[in-house]
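Example record

One chain of 534 residues, shown exactly as stored in the release files.
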Amino acid sequence: MFAPLCASLALMNSSSPPDSTLGLIPKPSSLVRGEGAFILSADTSITAGQGERATAALLAGWLRPPSGLALPIMTDRKPGSIWLKIDPAMRGVGNEGYHLRTSEKGAEIIAKTEAGLFYGAQTLRQLFPKEAFSAAAAPRVRWEAPSVEIVDGPRFAWRGGHLDVARHFMPKADVLRYIDRLAMHKMNVFHWHLTDDQGWRIEIKKYPKLTSVGAWRKDTMLKYSPATYSGKPHGGFYSQADVKEIVAYAAARHVTIVPEIEMPGHAQAAIAAYPELGNVKEPLEVGTIWGVIENVFNTEDSTIKFLQDVLTEVMALFPAKFIHIGGDECPKVQWKASRSVQAKMKQLGLKDEHAMQSWFIRQMDTFLAQKGRRLIGWSEILEGGLAPGAALMVWLGDDGAMQAVSSGHDVVMAQTSHTYFDYYQSKDTAKEPHAIGGFLPLDKVYSYEPILPKMTDEQAKHVMGVQFQMWTEYIASANHAEYMTFPRACALSEVAWSAKQVRNWDDFMSRLPKHLDRLTANGVNFRRLDPGTD
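Predicted structure tokens for this chain:
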């Protein structure tokens, strides 16, 4: 059985030295090594009740193919088994925390919730040989986990990874693998960027042209300057059946999908499908260039209703509390020139186009709130005043974050300086795939501190967590996206999960090589470490 609660709390506060030989990422709150090891054998079973059965099935599914062991799931506990237990009365580790013990007698994971149990199972998986992350039969290895006692739980509730499928469509199977790899790293939010100027990727049954027209573009920009193009059409979208499958798959791995439907800017694909949504008379094509484009939604009541109809179908597919409406990079050129928009501003008593954008966002905020949801948007939704119930995803500087938390709004820290994984990973750009620009090395990602020094304790409570961004203007495949994401996502997973006081760059780097072996076994196309860093 597990140690008494007092012992568990003592473990949480222990200062045991780092153990790089295990290579656990993200780093647990507390780890104490013991003698001996837990041996996985033909006699090993998994003990689980009804509430633990889903995690047990996942664990058995991970280990069975590479180990060749049956690992039956049983209700009766046998010596040498893996025992999974949910105890709602458990204290000291939080809703997503767990207590894990392995010894020659077996393995035990106890957690307050199924999510915590799942994260404990992920840690147990890391204790086994790297082959535990392979989907194929492994060469003969000794399947053992060293004797440890771990008490662990996350620092932040929002531990996110983003993927832009609007600029380049990623097939369903690639999205499922992406979710799996987030879950491997105890990340629990998948921010799915589904619409933009260059493509609309989600089926909306009421407005079929959004995909029949908006999901396809005639060409793709390969480089911005000098402008070069592929000369090939590009497109694709997810049916509502696809979305339901992906949402269910993610939920089984305790990943919440937050969908993003961009507005009022980044709207050209939608306007190409339904020209009445725009501000100009000339018909538009789905965008083929990158950057900020002036074609934005108009502010007519019919356009607001159109987008709320879209959000109604989106909410039916995604149970997430938060719905992301973008709100970033909305040029006001067309609004300034539009008699209709200017008349509406006068009618509403709005002083400028920034206030017009705020009014637009507030219509969505009120609509979502009435449906029991919450709006989240990028930094620019601050322009003209933040909608009452909205949360902010901070991609720009610290000022917006401070403004939001000072006024009692929740934030997710997602700043370009540390979390934009479409940036180069080396200063020697000639040796790297073409990227959008910037330079974000692994050590800078690891150094990110989401709680700003100027935040008070009360303000810091509004920091829900942290998220990396994977924009895909120049990333045309899941293989390339993986190269840009890993191992930087490994570093950010530790920023998101591990307590600030246990994080240490040298310690992380001593653990990372072993973890990269796991990624190799899992088939991840990660970027290799620079010479001299491993």
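Notes: The first strand starts at residue 30 and ends at 39.
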